Amino acid sequence: MSSLTEKDRAIVQLLLNTGTCPRCILRFCCVGSQTVYRHPYKDLMKDLKDFLKNNQEKEDMVCFDIVDPPCKRIRLEDTEEGPDDANHNGTLQQIPSVNDENTAMENSAVEVCNVCLGILQEFCEVDFVKKVCQKVNSADYQFTSFVFSVSLPPQLSVRERAAWLLVKQEMGKLGLSLAKDDIVPLKEAYKWIIHPQLSEELGVPADGKALFEVSVVFAHPETDEECHFLATACPDCFKPAKNKQSVFTRMAVIKALEKIKEEDFLKHFPCPPCSPKNLCVALEIQCNNGAVFVAGRYNKYSRNLPQTPWIIDGERKLESSVEELISEHLMAAFKADSFNFSSSGREDVDVRTLGNGRPFAIELVNPRRIHFTAEEMKGLQQTINNSSDKIKVRDLQLVTREAIGRMKEGEEEKTKTYSALIWTDRAIQKEDIAFLDDIKELKLDQKTPLRVLHRRPLAVRCRIIHTMKSEYIDEHHFRLHLKTQAGTYIKEFVHGDFGRTKPNVGSLLN
Amino acid sequence: RICVITLAEAHPLLQTGKTITSINYQISANCSRLQNKVSGKSKRGAQFLTELAPLCRISSSDGEEYTIYSCIRGRLIEVNENILSNPAILQEKPSTEGYIAVVLPKFEESKSITQGLLTQKEYEEVLLKR
């Protein structure tokens, strides 16, 4: 094998003996060529053995002592060799796996790798790829690229560490060092192998930034408890969190591995790691599409429609809502799991929204369909508008996430225009309200109105009334048009809210 | 439901001739209603009031001192500091700007509290009987 050199020989031998698969061996020899990993498993195994055999002709054999850990097992099917720490002959024939390579390997099933637990073995094969693709296709998503994310059981980090320590020690004997970062990471190698296969089968490229995610969770229940020793060694890394089932999350394990001292690690964990009986299992293969955002403007013509569903104690107080009327059709068209409705401000149930309409946006979570032409969007808009006379939408379009931020920004910075019909107890004349027209940039201090105090924090809000225009109606009525800063409580400005909004129309009129 | 505590119509302080000399929210050595601080939607930190908890003591020029009681169980949200600077509004506008305090009862108790109160009509009948 061209990528391997002399210095790798000892490592290859060592790892092969201890039950490590060829691809993991290549990783620990820092082989960085992606294509090598993609060679079929059998070929790689053969190549490794050939590489080792070539050493037989050499004069100075590397005479190595295999570290004798407490729980190591070597498959000795075809040889009478018992303990493996006495190979002073150095002849490689005595290593069983090389001995009668064909029969030895064909007879015995492929051993589950003690480092990757089968990830770089079984789960690189066509069968698994087909299984994943079948799941993807049956889920019926629309996508142009994919990102494949893999969740590995935490014990793999532990085993990786053990293998590294083993290899490091061996390299040390040759006077060489091996940094943890030099080793090819398991996930990276796995992706080198599986991405092209998935890409071929699905017909779209793999892209780290893709919105469509295929995720696989691997588990290896047989060895789940291997991480537990870390809890005794580094207890502060493993705080039980309410949501998580197990304290031994991958992050916690990695953190603990960083903290633990080499000696402590070796005390608690066999090095090299034991060979497992079983492969990992792929617990779940899930598909998820990145959220899609639809924005537009809505008008509300009903004085009996809340923006969001109004439910008290499980009972719906009013039928339907703006968000439901709009999202119902979008959810069906985009085939999403759920939605998040947001708008630039809102209005009361008993208030209409006229004019150009209020900007809104809907985040459609995990949509199956994501491509819609302008025509199709127009069609959707028409469908929504035809379905109800309580609301109408316009300018329905697909937007980015940033658009929502900008929409929300406007909420604070806007100027609001209101028209208020005001009744006065005291009789008034035209002249009495004329002065209101001249007031500009009136500063208000508004305590949280009593009518919302039960559901809002108590605070004082400074707001500005930019301009006003009064319209006399009769001795007890007039209309007041106001331009105010966003967030101003108009009703409270008019009636004073027990004097908690100052100044107010009442105080101004006196 | 938010409750606003005000002087009742028939309260002596609202009868003609009485002048308020002082209003004191310090009801005991340790407790001043002015120190009430609430935070957040659930109004944490609020002083809890029972029906007989005093809100303030008001003195009039004829030497009388009246203690105003909460009458509502709940969290004290705020007391009206405007009446400290301008006691006149307490008498001129007792039901609006001259309110005493705002109390927020527990949601569960809301209904039972309301049922224990008198309507305007019932109150007037009580007054007639006096």
From TrEMBL, chain A:
<dbReference type="GO" id="GO:0005634">
    <property type="term" value="C:nucleus"/>
</dbReference>
<keyword id="KW-0175">Coiled coil</keyword>
<dbReference type="InterPro" id="IPR048741">
    <property type="entry name" value="Pus10-like_C"/>
</dbReference>
<keyword id="KW-0413">Isomerase</keyword>
<dbReference type="Pfam" id="PF21238">
    <property type="entry name" value="Pus10_C"/>
</dbReference>
<dbReference type="Pfam" id="PF21237">
    <property type="entry name" value="Pus10_N_euk"/>
</dbReference>
<dbReference type="GO" id="GO:0003723">
    <property type="term" value="F:RNA binding"/>
</dbReference>
<protein>
    <recommendedName>
        <fullName>tRNA pseudouridine synthase Pus10</fullName>
        <ecNumber>5.4.99.25</ecNumber>
    </recommendedName>
</protein>
<dbReference type="InterPro" id="IPR048742">
    <property type="entry name" value="Pus10_N_euk"/>
</dbReference>
<feature type="region of interest" description="Disordered">
    <location>
        <begin position="77"/>
        <end position="96"/>
    </location>
</feature>
<keyword id="KW-0496">Mitochondrion</keyword>
<dbReference type="GO" id="GO:0160148">
    <property type="term" value="F:tRNA pseudouridine(55) synthase activity"/>
</dbReference>
<keyword id="KW-0963">Cytoplasm</keyword>
<comment type="similarity">
    <text>Belongs to the pseudouridine synthase Pus10 family.</text>
</comment>
<dbReference type="GO" id="GO:0005739">
    <property type="term" value="C:mitochondrion"/>
</dbReference>
<dbReference type="InterPro" id="IPR020103">
    <property type="entry name" value="PsdUridine_synth_cat_dom_sf"/>
</dbReference>
<keyword id="KW-0539">Nucleus</keyword>
<keyword id="KW-0862">Zinc</keyword>
<dbReference type="GO" id="GO:0031119">
    <property type="term" value="P:tRNA pseudouridine synthesis"/>
</dbReference>
<feature type="domain" description="Pus10 N-terminal eukaryotes">
    <location>
        <begin position="113"/>
        <end position="287"/>
    </location>
</feature>
<keyword id="KW-0479">Metal-binding</keyword>
<dbReference type="InterPro" id="IPR039894">
    <property type="entry name" value="Pus10-like"/>
</dbReference>
UniProtKB/TrEMBL annotation, chain B:
<keyword id="KW-0539">Nucleus</keyword>
<dbReference type="GO" id="GO:0051015">
    <property type="term" value="F:actin filament binding"/>
</dbReference>
<dbReference type="GO" id="GO:0051489">
    <property type="term" value="P:regulation of filopodium assembly"/>
</dbReference>
<keyword id="KW-0966">Cell projection</keyword>
<dbReference type="GO" id="GO:0030426">
    <property type="term" value="C:growth cone"/>
</dbReference>
<dbReference type="GO" id="GO:0030027">
    <property type="term" value="C:lamellipodium"/>
</dbReference>
<dbReference type="GO" id="GO:0003785">
    <property type="term" value="F:actin monomer binding"/>
</dbReference>
<dbReference type="GO" id="GO:0030833">
    <property type="term" value="P:regulation of actin filament polymerization"/>
</dbReference>
<dbReference type="InterPro" id="IPR011053">
    <property type="entry name" value="Single_hybrid_motif"/>
</dbReference>
<dbReference type="GO" id="GO:0016607">
    <property type="term" value="C:nuclear speck"/>
</dbReference>
<dbReference type="InterPro" id="IPR039169">
    <property type="entry name" value="Abitram"/>
</dbReference>
<dbReference type="GO" id="GO:0030425">
    <property type="term" value="C:dendrite"/>
</dbReference>
<dbReference type="GO" id="GO:0048813">
    <property type="term" value="P:dendrite morphogenesis"/>
</dbReference>
<dbReference type="Pfam" id="PF01597">
    <property type="entry name" value="GCV_H"/>
</dbReference>
<dbReference type="InterPro" id="IPR033753">
    <property type="entry name" value="GCV_H/Fam206"/>
</dbReference>
<protein>
    <recommendedName>
        <fullName>Protein Abitram</fullName>
    </recommendedName>
</protein>
<comment type="similarity">
    <text>Belongs to the ABITRAM family.</text>
</comment>
<dbReference type="GO" id="GO:0032433">
    <property type="term" value="C:filopodium tip"/>
</dbReference>
